[in-house]
Every structure is written in C-alpha cells, then in structure tokens.
Amino acid sequence: MENIEVFLVNAFTKDGSGGNPAGVVLNADRLNDADKLHIAQVIGYSETAFVSSDAEVDFEVSFFTTTGEVDFCGHATLATFSVLHQKGFITDGQYRQRTKAGVLPVSVNALGEVTMVQALPTFGRTFSNSEMSGLIGIEEKALESMSFPAQVVSTGLPDLIIQVPKGYLDKVNIDEAKLIEFSKEHELVGAHVFELFDGTEATASCRNFAPLFGISEESATGSASGALACYLDKYLAAEHSRSFVFEQGRAMGALSQIFASVESNEHGVQRVKVGGVANVMGSKIVSLQD
Description:
Blueprint: E1 2-11, E2 20-25, H1 33-43, E3 48-52, E4 59-64, E5 69-70, H2 74-86, E6 93-99, E7 102-108, E8 114-118, E9 122-127, H3 129-136, H4 140-143, E10 150-154, E11 158-163, H5 176-186, E12 190-196, E13 204-210, E14 215-218, H6 222-236, E15 243-248, E16 256-265, E17 268-276, E18 278-288
Parallel strand pairs: 2-3, 4-6, 11-12, 13-15
Antiparallel strand pairs: 1-2, 1-18, 3-4, 4-5, 6-7, 7-8, 8-17, 9-10, 10-11, 12-13, 13-14, 15-16, 16-17
C-alpha cells in the first residue's frame, strides 16, 4: 500500500477567504489514471491536479474530477503553482505546463499571485432564450432584455456563456437533468451564468454549473472566466476595458475573485490571461491499494 500526499488548496480567494478548493499531488509520475481518479474521488473536490515531470517543458499537469479526466482546469492550475511556489519548488518567474489543452504559460510573482495564459478562444454556436429559460429557470421575457446571446466559448474547455439581467443571478435555478443532457448533446463542460455590474470594482458576478462532471455549482472557475473575458471583449468591444474582475461563489457563501485580461487586435484575440491568489490549507494522505 502506498500513501500519497494531497495538498488542499483554496484557489481564487478574496482577502484570504472564499475561493474554490482543489487537490494537488506533486511527483505524480508513477500514478496511472485509475490511481488519479481514485485520489480525486477520495478528496471529493471538483478537481484535483497531478504534477509530473516533462522532458520539454517545466511540468506536465493532468486534471481529474470525481468522474474522470478533463483537459484543463483553471483553479487547479492556480492551486498547483501556488503549492509549487509556497513549498519552494519554484521561485518567482515564468513557467510552462503541458496539459491536454496544450502547452500553456504560467507566471508567479513575489506576492504569490499566479497568472496563467489560456488557449485562444473558439466561439461556438448561439442558443435561443427559450432554450436557456428551461435550463436555468429564468423566464424567457427577462432573458429577452439581454443584448448578448447565449453562446458556447472555449479557452480550453467549452462552456455555455449566459447573461442574465442584474438582480437575477441569485434566482438562477438549474435543471440539472436538462443541463446534463444539453451538455452531452453539445459537448459542453457546463454553463457559466453572469450578470454585469456598473461602476463597481467587479465587472461581473458569475455562477458556474457542470453537473455532467459531478459539479452542481463551483465557487471559482478559471477556464470559464477566460472564456467570459473573451465573450465580453467580443460583445462589449470598445465600450469596456479589456481587463476584467469577476466575482463568483456568492450564492455558495464562498465569495471568490478572479482577474482576467484579453489582448486583441484587428486579427482577433491574441492572448488570454486569468489570475488570482490561493491559500494552501493543509494536506491529506490517500492510500493506494497495491
């Protein structure tokens, strides 16, 4: 029997609280996929990251939910590099991680703030307000007042981005069975629902739902935050800064803060960055059967 240490980390914290928990396993080269899935299930967080060596880049990182592997996870990336930095495995600087979403740069500064470069966006199909109403439990009439369409956007993982009127975010009531089937049919991770703010320190407040992957709701989602930043860059255009601050997790009592920025020119988006801070809460030992 082998014992594996799993670091327990809150990612995208705001003023030291809130955030989204992730597990992090270092030196994971010897673990197979079945081992990783078992560890992720024992930890029970939305994602656990596994760090392995790589011959060409700094690290290979794989991500597992309680149901299986996903190509990328933003908050678990933040958790991973926070652990590496706080435990002295890396210093301030620029790094590259190999993921199933590609080789992605990550930077860490002296304050422990982690910024990750995500894959360039792909914009998928849009959906009608009537379809969205049935998924999120908001009447169609309210959704019709929105300027921007519900659309699939991916910066590594495809999410359905849905705007609701200000004051409606806390009223969202997901039909999990419908969203699971919808996600399967359209090859989505889940739905990222947001309301825009005016003149506050946050650009938008968000909620993320991925029941297909065993996540009823998540308090901070890095991948979807990158997708939302690209979505807002596309639809707000010159009306808005290309730097965004998102809050998430309010309805869960775990208010989180996520920073995102988009660099674009006449040829489209050239770079997407998402960042924040994380707190290492401790660790847990998980036993693997021989």
